[in-house]
């Protein structure tokens, strides 16, 4: 019994083959170590619960972790180490670009990767067949905002502004697809731009009253205050890049009532709150990837019931069926690319230098 207990929480690079092996990859050391440990703790909490109830098909689950320090090269090395241990599934990594590079290796080996936190769209746009993304992809914020503007301001004189970066262009492309009609103006600025006179002149000439700012917080803040000083009265929306103190530092009171999207708190469900309370009592933080990582184990277990725990890539195939799977985060469904099919965001409003949630929505 003692030998079995030790095997259930195995974090070495070498391991004797257990019944079902779950690989966990992420920053187990370095500046992002807290996130890697949170992910590992979430997986362990879920594995312990499954094992305590008899495991999957009477087989116990074992964890093997690999450290990538959020580094691309180390992520590739970590992926190969986990594959050498014959893992049945991998949960990880944490940072988006290392996740992508590791995902290519898992995909080639036919092993499912369930990614709790990687938000870059390219992860599920690269033709990889064995990837499941737990978090809402970065560009989904654009579609979320477009649907709100259509509903709340159907006759808006709208400008969509980005900073030309890949991430922000992905957000505005998602916005455009969901908006379904050309905005009055589309414009790009240069990151860290100081003078917005040219773009503001265009906004004024077209009588713009609504703007979506897919830029950094500081750029959006400077544009906001310069627009206000020019006499423009704008209703402002933006992605989570505006949910940062540098936005208010740059905008001051001119940023009042700016609406910013942000993924909904995963602790909303009764089960998640209970788990968070119990985990915090043990000194474990439950923010970051803890709850998504716990839910990732639940997804694996649910798919394994149908496809078989050792079916490797068929785990992803089963999860991509469009069926709903019960998790601590609520029911989750995935499309053929591996992206979640339900948007879950809150709107936050900047008021007097602080941001506060105004409503949870899932349009």
Report on this model:
The chain is of the alpha/beta class and 363 residues long. The protein folds into two domains: 2-137 and 266-319, Rossmann fold, CATH 3.40.50.2300; 140-264 and 344-361, Rossmann fold. Helix content is 40%, strand content 17%. It has twelve helices and twelve strands. The protein has helices at 2-7, 33-52, 72-84, 96-109, 140-152, 166-179, 197-205, 217-229, 245-251, 270-281, 290-307, 314-319; strands at residues 20-26, 61-67, 89-92, 113-115, 131-133, 158-162, 185-188, 210-214, 235-238, 259-263, 345-351, 354-361. It has a seven-stranded mixed β-sheet. α3 runs parallel beside α4. The longest helix is centred in the first third of the chain and has 20 residues, at 33-52. The chain is elongated. The model is unreliable at 1-18 (pLDDT under 50).
Secondary structure blueprint with pairings:
Blueprint: H1 2-7, E1 20-26, H2 33-52, E2 61-67, H3 72-84, E3 89-92, H4 96-109, E4 113-115, E5 131-133, H5 140-152, E6 158-162, H6 166-179, E7 185-188, H7 197-205, E8 210-214, H8 217-229, E9 235-238, H9 245-251, E10 259-263, H10 270-281, H11 290-307, H12 314-319, E11 345-351, E12 354-361
Parallel strand pairs: 1-2, 1-3, 3-4, 4-5, 6-7, 6-8, 8-9, 9-10
Antiparallel strand pairs: 10-11, 11-12
Helix pairs in contact: 2-11, 3-4, 5-6, 8-9
């Amino acid at each position: 019994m003692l030998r079995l207990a030790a095997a259930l929480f195995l974090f070495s690079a070498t391991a004797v083959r257990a019944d079902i092996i779950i690989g966990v990859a992420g920053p187990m050391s370095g500046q992002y170590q807290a996130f890697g440990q949170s992910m590992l703790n979430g997986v362990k909490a879920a594995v312990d619960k499954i094992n305590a109830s008899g495991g999957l098909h009477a087989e116990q689950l074992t964890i093997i972790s690999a450290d990538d320090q959020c580094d691309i090269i180390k992520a590739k090395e970590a992926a190969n180490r986990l594959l050498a241990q014959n893992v049945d599934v991998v949960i990880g990594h944490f940072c988006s670009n290392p996740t992508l590079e590791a995902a290519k290796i898992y995909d080639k080996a036919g092993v499912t990767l369930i990614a709790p936190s990687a938000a870059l769209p390219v992860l599920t746009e690269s033709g990889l067949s064995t990837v499941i993304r737990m978090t809402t992809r970065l560009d989904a914020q654009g579609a979320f905002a477009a649907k709100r503007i259509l509903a709340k301001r159907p006759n808006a004189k709208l400008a969509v502004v980005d900073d030309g970066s890949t991430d922000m262009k992905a957000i505005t492309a998602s916005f455009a697809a969901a908006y379904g009609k050309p905005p009055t103006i589309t414009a790009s600025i240069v990151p860290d731009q100081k003078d917005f006179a040219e773009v503001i002149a265009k906004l004024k000439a077209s009588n713009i009253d609504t703007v979506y700012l897919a830029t950094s917080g500081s750029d959006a803040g400077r544009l906001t205050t310069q627009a206000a000083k020019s006499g423009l009265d704008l209703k402002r929306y933006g992605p989570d890049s505006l949910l940062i103190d540098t936005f208010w530092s740059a905008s001051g009171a001119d940023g009042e009532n700016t609406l910013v999207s942000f993924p909904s708190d995963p602790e909303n469900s009764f089960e998640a709150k209970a788990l968070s309370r119990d985990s915090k009592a043990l000194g474990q933080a439950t923010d970051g990837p803890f709850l998504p990582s716990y839910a990732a184990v639940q997804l694996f277990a649910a798919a394994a019931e149908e496809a078989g725990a050792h079916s490797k890539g068929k785990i992803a195939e089963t999860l991509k069926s469009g069926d709903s799977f019960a998790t601590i985060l609520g029911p989750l469904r995935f499309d053929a690319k591996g992206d979640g099919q339900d948007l879950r965001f809150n709107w936050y409003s900047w008021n007097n230098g602080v941001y506060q949630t105004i409503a949870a929505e899932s349009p």
